[in-house]
């Protein structure tokens, strides 16, 4: 399969940059995996994508931790809840198609894009406060919902997390990106508890792609830190619009 790696490694590298900077690298990797590996099942594609993503997310989390102060009191329960949601989602993927959720996701995504587009100041400033009980409850509920989406559908999870951390907890784009990386790492890692025991990961592909994702994440974090909130906001809107168009196309055809 070495010839396939010539195509997939650059894609994983670019996805690593995007995932670290704003999320949404799955919009690149998943279609490429399906095109390059047509003999693989959807679950096997998911296995390769999730393991390589976990490796890239771990590196980006490590980098953000050394540069930003993160609200661990909020992030950890949100991440734990997201892990549970992701595991439930990946288990259900074996029993029912995810297509029935697509119209709901399209509506929510369209609202999210419109809200960000028409609020230019959205995410420009960090107005967060120390989390109270209500914030922790919101974090747990949102974490489970996003985790379920990640396990059941997948692409765009980082973008949804980014939006929710800004909308509900009033972070700026940069800090929300860092928080989203922690939770997204948890959701991707949770799916491995199902994928690994069932032999759905092809390590000869996933590990080289994970190394490429790690290299990309180093660059992605630097871009996010230097570009700041305005740059991340633009990239977020671009990726969210791309995901919306992709979902609409798949629904209508």
Automatic annotation (TrEMBL):
Domain of life from the UniProt record: Bacteria
List, alphabetically, the InterPro entries matched: TM_pro_TauE-like, TSUP
Q: Which GO terms describe its cellular component?
A: plasma membrane
**Main localisation, per the record?**
membrane
Q: Which compartments does it reside in?
A: Cell inner membrane; Cell membrane
Pfam families, from UniProt? TauE (PF01925)
Q: How does it sit in the membrane?
A: Multi-pass membrane protein
Q: Where are the transmembrane segments?
A: 6-30, 74-93, 99-118, 139-167, 173-196, 205-225, 231-249
**Which UniProt keyword terms apply here?**
Cell inner membrane, Cell membrane, Membrane, Transmembrane, Transmembrane helix, Transport
Matches recorded under PANTHER family: MEMBRANE TRANSPORTER PROTEIN YFCA-RELATED (PTHR30269:SF0), TRANSMEMBRANE PROTEIN YFCA (PTHR30269)
So what family is this one in? Belongs to the 4-toluene sulfonate uptake permease (TSUP) (TC 2.A.102) family.
Q: What is this protein called?
A: Probable membrane transporter protein
Q: Please spell out the taxonomic lineage of the organism that makes this protein.
A: Bacteria, Pseudomonadati, Pseudomonadota, Gammaproteobacteria, Enterobacterales
């Amino acid at each position: 399969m070495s010839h396939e790696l010539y195509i997939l490694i650059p894609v994983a590298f670019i996805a690593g940059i995007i995932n670290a900077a704003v999320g949404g690298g799955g919009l690149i990797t998943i279609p490429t995996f399906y095109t390059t590996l047509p003999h693989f099942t959807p679950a096997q594609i998911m296995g390769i994508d999730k393991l390589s993503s976990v490796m890239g997310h771990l590196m980006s989390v490590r980098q953000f931790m050394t540069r930003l102060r993160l609200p661990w009191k909020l992030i950890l329960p949100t991440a734990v809840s997201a892990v549970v949601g992701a595991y439930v989602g990946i288990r259900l993927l074996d029993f029912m198609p995810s297509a029935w959720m697509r119209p709901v996701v399209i509506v929510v995504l369209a609202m999210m894009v419109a809200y960000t587009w028409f609020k230019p100041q959205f995410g420009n400033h960090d107005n967060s406060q120390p989390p109270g009980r209500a914030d922790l409850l919101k974090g747990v509920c949102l974490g489970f919902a996003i985790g379920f989406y990640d396990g059941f559908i997948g692409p765009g999870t980082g973008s949804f997390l980014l939006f929710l951390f800004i909308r509900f907890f009033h972070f700026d784009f940069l800090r929300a990106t860092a928080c989203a990386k922690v939770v997204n790492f948890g959701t991707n890692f949770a799916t491995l508890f199902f994928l690994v025991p069932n032999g759905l990961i092809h390590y000869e592909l996933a590990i080289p792609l994970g190394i490429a994702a790690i290299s990309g994440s180093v660059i992605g974090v630097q871009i996010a830190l230097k570009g700041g909130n305005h740059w991340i906001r633009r990239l977020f809107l671009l990726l969210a619009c791309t995901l919306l168009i992709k979902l609409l196309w798949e629904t209508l055809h």
